[in-house]
């Protein structure tokens, strides 16, 4: 088996807990480059949020928003996108209101929320570390727009998320519904929406979000038939390579389809148990100690 493409998740896989890339991983990426093995970043985050990391790891391709957008980073060319419809956005908004859930959403170069609280707060903490580079202004309706002067990323903190999206005709890739209580009833309602792709992620117990010191669960909601696995299939067709030419590395539940769509699927040591069950190999090292690099050296001869 000759690997031509390695597809990797970011948080909990490629990145350490402080959002940095361990030096061992950077060395493995350089070794891949010398062997002409391409790297594809596969993340639930948007491209605007992931852009700096993509540059640092010299990724040639990017799957963003859990597969809602695919970009040829070498050519700086978008090759796929699929946004939520107004009806789908309205459903998510109504569901959030009914169950008192926190809601935020991702677009091309922005995060929109009514309050920085869970994953949106995490992203804010990571990417707006330097408040000296953050500029904020209120519009006429007292919605706050925060913009980072050194990137294209903005955070919209608005009174009414759905209303703001509709009024400004914003294209939305993903909606995130979050809460700290039992979300079983919400999960049941979402299962009945066959026109949506829903992924449930728990950040409780051993998976607690240490960066913002919170425990919560969330649903990542995307258009129908969206996922990292189907996105990798699209990318394989684009590159004219086969499944056996690919290896993937992940840790979270939204990486399961990614691993299944690859010739070799690797789970890092800190991965969720269902991910390990479908993996070809599970690393001894966790993300912070170079689990990605271990996976590369396990299956690639340098």
Describe how the helices and strands are arranged:
Layout lengths: L4 E4 L14 H12 L3 E5 L4 H10 L4 E4 L4 E4 L4 E5 L4 H14 L2 E5 L3 E4 L5 H9 L6 E5 L5 E5 L5 E4 L3 H7 L6 E6 L4 H8 L4 E8 L12 E8 L4 H12 L6 E5 L5 H5 L3 E4 L5 H6 L2 E2 L8 H9 L3
Parallel strand pairs: 1-2, 1-14, 2-3, 7-10, 14-15, 15-16
Antiparallel strand pairs: 3-4, 4-5, 6-7, 6-11, 8-9, 9-10, 11-13, 12-13
Helix pairs in contact: 1-10
Q: Which percent bin holds the helix content?
A: 25-40%
Count all strands and give the number.
16
* Gyration radius, in Å: 19 Å
User: What series of H and E elements makes up the topology?
Assistant: EHEHEEEHEEHEEEHEHEEHEHEHEH
Low-confidence stretches: none
Q: Given the helix and strand composition, which structural class is it?
A: alpha/beta
Query: Mean pLDDT, nearest integer?
Result: 92
Sheet of most strands: 8 strands, mixed
Coarse morphology: globular
Number of helices: 10
Assembly type: single chain
End-to-end C-alpha gap: 14 Å
Going across the major beta sheet, what is the strand order? 5-4-3-2-1-14-15-16
What percent strand? 25-35%
Q: What can you tell me about this protein's structure?
A:
With 302 residues, the chain is α/β, with parallel strands linked by helices. Helix content is 30%, strand content 26%. It contains ten helices and 16 strands.
Write a short abstract of this structure.
The chain is built from 10 helices and 16 strands.
């Amino acid at each position: 088996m000759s690997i031509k493409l390695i597809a990797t998740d970011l948080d909990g896989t490629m990145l350490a807990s402080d959002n940095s890339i361990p030096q061992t991983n950077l060395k493995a990426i350089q070794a891949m480059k010398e062997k002409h093995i391409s790297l594809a970043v596969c993340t639930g985050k948007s491209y605007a949020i992931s852009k700096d990391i993509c540059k640092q790891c010299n990724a040639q391709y990017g799957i963003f928003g859990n597969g809602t957008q695919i970009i040829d980073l070498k050519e700086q060319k978008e090759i796929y996108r699929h946004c939520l419809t107004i009806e789908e956005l309205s459903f998510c908004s109504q569901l959030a209101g009914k169950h008192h859930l926190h809601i935020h959403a991702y677009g091309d170069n922005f995060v929109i929320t009514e309050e920085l609280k869970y994953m949106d707060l995490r992203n804010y903490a990571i990417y707006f570390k330097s408040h000296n580079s953050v500029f904020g202004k209120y519009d006429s309706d007292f919605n706050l727009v925060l913009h980072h002067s050194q990137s294209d990323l903005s955070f919209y903190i608005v009174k009414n998320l759905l209303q703001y999206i509709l009024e400004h005709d914003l294209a939305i890739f993903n909606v995130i519904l979050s809460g700290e209580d039992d979300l079983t009833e919400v999960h049941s309602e979402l299962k009945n929406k066959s026109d949506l792709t829903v992924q449930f992620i728990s950040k409780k117990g051993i998976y607690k979000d240490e960066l913002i010191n919170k425990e919560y669960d969330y649903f990542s909601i995307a258009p129908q038939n969206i996922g990292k696995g189907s996105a990798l299939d699209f990318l394989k067709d684009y590159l004219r390579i086969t499944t056996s030419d690919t290896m993937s590395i992940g840790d979270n539940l939204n990486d399961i389809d990614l691993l299944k769509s690859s010739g070799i699927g690797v789970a890092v040591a800190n991965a969720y148990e269902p991910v390990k069950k479908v993996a070809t190999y599970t690393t001894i090292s966790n993300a912070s100690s170079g689990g990605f690099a271990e996976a590369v050296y396990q299956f690639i001869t340098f």
